[in-house]
Write a structure and sequence with these properties.
By secondary structure, this protein is mainly beta. The protein folds into five domains: 215 residues, Sandwich (Jelly Rolls); 112 residues, Immunoglobulin-like; 281 residues, TIM Barrel, CATH 3.20.20; 106 residues, Immunoglobulin-like (Sandwich), CATH 2.60.40; 289 residues, Beta-galactosidase, Chain A, domain 5, CATH 2.70.98.10. It contains 15 helices and 61 strands. The strands form 13 sheets. Strands 50, 51, 52, 53, 54, 55, 56, 57, 58, 59, 60 and 61 form a twelve-stranded antiparallel β-sheet that branches. It has an eight-stranded parallel β-sheet with strand order 32-31-30-29-28-35-34-33. Strands 1-11-10-13-7-4-5 form a seven-stranded antiparallel β-sheet, with no helix packed on it. Strand 47 and strand 48 form a beta hairpin. The chain is globular, with a radius of gyration of 33 Å.
């Protein structure tokens, strides 16, 4: 095939394959029964993964003539690893764009043409020899995934061409195969007509990204298996129909029969038979196996019961020529009255969108990452995954069958970038006839490969490809080919003419209010959020506003968080340390920068702090403990919690006062109350006579090891705070009351009122203020100076480093005056005086407009400082209240020496928390360091905050430091950087070497938000408006170690 012809094929949407075999099921086949019974790796499979010879060219035009011939030398070529991306191995440039096609603005091409100049192309070559035992038989070569198009030659013979990056391309190579050494050559181009259909929000890279292998098939081979299971209304009887397509090398294939056996999840044989009747067609026969089983064990994500079908092909002489094993599951997916059901129970999807991705490998992930992912998802209470936005590797579905996850299988189709073509909406595939067959072929390739996996509950037509006849035809293909699963597509919400394309009312990034509006008006389809809770950077606030929809509206069937893992690429920074790169970091343009980092995990698979909130709201049990026991609400559909143990703990200020554990059994979808033993209850009543705050915690943990987690793994928890007050104890003060530290024996103190400084000298510490500005310039505890510099010590702070959602909602622009007010304050008035046995320092700051802030320090004889910060408005004729924007935060900042590295607190933890993202944490006593508090968000931003804090301690290695406390809970963080330093950096490696420890103490800061990252605001309850005076008080007490 000439170069000109190959280039023509790359640009022709009507040629998307040549010589490719018809798609079929992903079953395994063997020559021996014991191998099949064990489900072992296929001996009839020869992997071609590993090191290949490689030559990179900037475009197909630059490919040398005759490279595919056997005598073309590859001695001067480089090497490359397969599977793997070309770009991540030093060949070409990774590029990240969200919706724009990667060639936009780089090459002037007409709409729907393929770039000729900018089209990175790799030539791969691999030599292999089949073992003697596999020679002289029919052979096929399998490419599991190649981005985005490739031509293939074997020993100089043209084998075929294929597009569709994420479904297998299989070719028969029997006639081209040699008995000895074979030379395989593959030309891979990053851009083809198929690239117009693959405009997903991901890194644009190319290469052979999934496995390549050669298979040997027997003379008579089960080419395809289709398993159809159904459940009778009693949900105890199941029917099974297995359709087999046999491919025979012998056209006159007579007397072939198939023996079959079915084994239940316990490994017991429950059915068997032999079938000889077949419907013949050219070169193959089709067999049908039917049966009915009683007392079946249903498959669900909660209890993934799998049956095993063992098939044996018998030739006319009675010889077993092939053994095949196929896992099946009995489950029933239905939509009735606009409600989604699984096995007769209403199903709510606690899902996540998952790209196949690793910061080290890109999309060329292996089995180890997939196994880690499925266990991780199960451990953290996910029950569903959407394969956004392409079919995943076959092994992923095998794992989801085994571990139990509901999968929405999505066609490799997205054309978001064509939405920008104008008012006529000439979007792909639309109604263009030349693109129809390519799209239908993608749907067919996915369905035929994946059809036997019980984990798949829905087929998805694709993502963000607008609407039109082709998409509708794809949905009808799914329905006609497989009526057992509903069909999903979201984009018809933009064009209701094509409403019939989807069986769901599917939306993206809809606010909870918009979802309620639809659900309150007699919906005629199940309502799904196929993408929600955009997890970019420090996000996933107000998640409960979405999850509680499931309790309010039966037609709400849940959704999929966007998304599972950051798509940042791990590289070495200028200092030789690993760092996470995003769009634009490879000089790739156009680029959408860090918009690829929306994961609940960082790209190295470390957990992002957002994850814990999701785990909490996705848990299957709702627990509310009190002093007498635990109220349990079981949200499971099929399990009663018998595999779990309930732990109940009562603590007072972090100290355990009582605890017990016991087994539970709460029927699915029911409530129950588990009382603690009477002896424990009696002890608890005595404990509660002592006034104070008590925290009741209930946890459900695994009693025994599971596939996905070890015994002791916590599946769910709940907490409740109980206040016990003695008769002579007054109720807690109101928020704005002045807090005065009480001491029975107040030590004496010396006040020195100098010309320029005002000092208070105590027995164990000293405090010094600058008289002109009122700044705290020295605070020594046990001789150690705790003031790094006077410009950043206990000063009012109203700013935070904007999180990604703040960027999208333009918080920086609206609230910019508060950043200036945090950096530069105009001191209007300073006063120093002695009040009784305390010294008082008061500073009034003018901010902007009519805003003012007063800060008062009351110093006691033991060196404790009562700090009170009050924000108010001054009456000015030229200023209106509307001139004051909302506050990002309200509190104070203190820069301490770098040696202050030990952080301990009593409050929500151990991970960071915010007002709209704190239920996934527990109240307790925790420890950390400033370094560990700095979250690994790809772009530095606000992080490390802790809400509902009762007290916090910050000390050096000798135990010298401070303790912060208050009558009301506060927020605090301890980081190596100021909020301004975080804001000025675009990568973690750009942050300076830590030189100080920064303590921030807040009454409150705004929530992090999470509806989306391009305009949605933080929900109202978690914003700080200034309609009245705002005040905040806390006490700083010195800590030191006496010699």
């Amino acid at each position: 095939m000439e170069k000109k012809q190959r280039i023509s094929i790359l640009g022709n949407p009507e040629i998307f394959q040549e010589n490719r075999m018809m798609p079929c099921s992903d079953h395994k086949w063997y020559e021996k029964r014991e191998e099949a019974a064990q489900g072992a790796d296929m001996p009839l499979k020869r992997s071609l993964n590993g090191v290949w010879k490689f030559m990179w060219c900037p475009n197909p035009e630059g490919v040398p003539e005759g490279f595919e011939k056997t005598d073309f030398s590859t001695s001067g070529w480089q090497e490359i690893q397969v599977p793997g991306h070309m770009e991540l191995q030093g060949y070409g440039q990774p590029q990240y764009t969200d919706t724009s096609y990667p060639w936009t603005g780089r090459e002037d091409i007409k709409s729907l043409e393929v770039p000729r100049d900018i089209n990175p192309t790799g030539i791969y070559a691999k030599s292999f020899t089949l073992p003697e035992s596999l020679r002289d038989k029919r052979c096929r070569i399998h490419f599991e995934g190649v981005e985005t198009a490739f031509f293939c030659w074997l020993n100089g013979v043209y084998i075929g061409y294929s597009e569709d990056s994420y479904t297998p391309a299989v070719f028969d190579i029997t006639d081209a195969l040699l008995a000895g050494k074979n030379k395989l050559v593959v030309q891979v181009s990053r851009f083809s007509s198929g690239a117009w259909l693959e405009d997903q929000d991901f890194w644009r890279m190319g290469g052979i990204v999934r496995e390549v292998w050669v298979s040997v098939v027997p003379e008579v081979h089960i080419q395809d298996i289709e398993v159809k299971t159904d459940i009778v209304d009693d949900y105890r009887t199941g029917t099974v129909e297995i359709l087999l397509a046999l491919d025979s090398e012998n056209k006159d294939c007579k007397d072939i029969s198939v023996e079959w056996q079915i084994f239940n999840p316990a490994g017991e044989k429950v059915a068997e038979g032999r079938t000889t009747e077949a419907k013949a067609s050219e070169n193959n026969k089709e067999y049908s196996i039917t049966g009915e089983l009683s007392d079946i064990s249903l498959w669900s994500a909660e209890v993934p019961n799998l049956y095993k079908v063992l098939l044996c092909v018998i030739d006319g002489s009675g010889n077993a020529v092939e053994w095949v094993v196929q896992q099946i599951g009995f489950r029933k997916v239905e939509i009735r009255d606009a409600i989604l059901y699984m096995n007769g129970k209403r199903l709510v999807l606690n899902g996540v969108n998952r790209h196949e991705f690793s910061g080290y490998k890109g999309r060329a992930i292996g089995k180890e990452e997939m196994e880690w992912d499925v266990r991780f998802l199960k451990q953290n209470n996910f029950n569903a995954v959407r394969t956004s936005h392409y079919p995943n590797q076959s092994y992923w579905y095998e794992l989801c069958d085994k571990y139990g996850l509901y999968v929405m299988d999505e066609t490799n189709l997205e054309t978001h970038g064509t939405w920008h073509t104008g008012a006529n909406r000439d979007t792909l595939p639309g109604n263009f006839p030349e693109w129809r067959e390519a799209c239908l072929a993608r749907a067919q390739a996915m369905l035929e490969r994946d059809k036997n996996h019980p984990c798949i509950f829905s087929w998805s037509v694709g993502n963000e490809s607008w609407s039109g006849q082709t998409l509708f035809d794809m949905s009808m293909y799914f329905r006609k080919r497989d009526s057992s699963r509903p069909v999903h597509y979201e984009n018809v919400c933009h064009d209701r003419k094509w409403e019939g394309t989807t069986d769901f009312e599917s939306r993206m990034y809809t606010t909870p209010e918009m979802a309620k509006e639809y659900l309150s008006n007699t919906p005629n389809k199940p309502y799904m959020l196929c993408e929600y809770a955009h997890a970019m950077g420090n996000s996933c606030g107000n998640l409960q506003e979405y999850t509680k929809l499931a309790d309010e509206y039966p037609q709400y069937c849940g959704g999929f968080i966007w998304d599972y893992i950051d798509q940042s690429i791990i590289v070495k920074d200028m200092f030789g340390q690993e760092t996470m790169a995003y769009g634009g970091d490879f000089d790739d343009r156009p680029a959408d920068y860090n918009f690829c980092t929306n994961g609940l995990l960082y790209s190295d698979r470390e957990i992002s702090p957002k994850l814990w909130e999701v785990k909490y709201y996705y848990q299957s049990f709702e627990l509310l403990p009190d002093e007498n026991g635990v109220n349990i609400k079981n949200r499971n559909l099929f399990t009663d919690g018998g595999d779990l143990k309930l732990l109940w703990i009562a603590e007072k200020e972090g100290q355990v006062k009582a605890q017990c554990e016991w087994d539970i059994c709460v029927k699915p979808l029911e409530n129950g109350y588990c009382s603690i033993p009477e002896k424990t209850a009696e002890n608890m009543r005595a404990v509660l006579l002592e006034p104070g705050e008590y925290v009741m915690t209930a946890s459900l943990i695994l009693k025994e090891d599971k596939l996905y987690a070890q015994a002791g793994h916590e599946c769910a928890f709940g907490q409740q705070v109980i206040l016990s007050e003695a008769a002579d104890r007054k109720p807690g003060r109101e928020e704005h009351d002045t807090v005065v530290p009480c001491m029975e024996n107040k030590p004496p103190m010396q006040i020195i009122d100098g010309d320029t400084v005002f000092s208070v000298i105590c027995d164990t510490c000293s405090v010094m203020y600058q008289k002109q500005t009122g700044k705290l310039v020295s605070y020594k505890v046990g001789g150690k100076e705790l003031v790094y510099d006077s410009f950043h010590t206990l000063l009012p702070n109203f700013w935070r480093a904007p999180v990604d959602n703040d960027e999208g909602s333009k918080m920086k622009l609206r609230c910019a005056p508060w950043k200036i007010a945090s950096l530069y304050q105009n001191v209007k008035e300073v006063s120093f005086q002695k009040r009784g046995d305390m010294a008082e320092v008061r500073v009034i700051y003018e901010l902007f407009g009519n805003a003012r802030c007063s800060v008062t320090h009351c110093i006691s004889g033991d060196g404790s400082i009562l700090v009170q910060e009050v924000w108010s408005r001054e009456e000015k004729a030229e200023c209106s209240n509307e001139d004051i924007p909302e506050l990002p935060c309200f509190g104070m900042s203190w820069k301490l020496p770098l040696s202050m590295q030990n952080v301990k607190w009593y409050g929500k933890g151990p991970h960071e928390t915010y007002t709209d993202r704190c239920e996934g944490s527990k109240i307790g006593i925790y420890k950390t360091t400033p370094k560990d508090s700095l979250a690994k968000y790809v772009v530095p931003q606000e992080c490390g905050n802790h809400v509902q804090t009762r007290w916090a301690e910050l000390t050096d290695e000798k135990g010298v430091g401070i303790r912060i406390s208050g009558d009301i809970a506060f927020e605090f963080s301890v980081l190596p950087y100021t909020c301004h330093e975080l804001e000025e950096s675009r990568h973690l490696y750009e942050l300076p070497r830590p030189y100080a420890t920064v303590l921030r103490i807040n009454k409150q800061q705004r929530g992090v938000g999470g509806d989306n990252s391009w305009g949605a605001e933080v929900h109202e309850p978690y914003r700080i408006y200034l309609e009245k005076e705002l005040s905040f008080s806390f006490v700083i007490k010195p800590y030191f170690v006496k010699e």
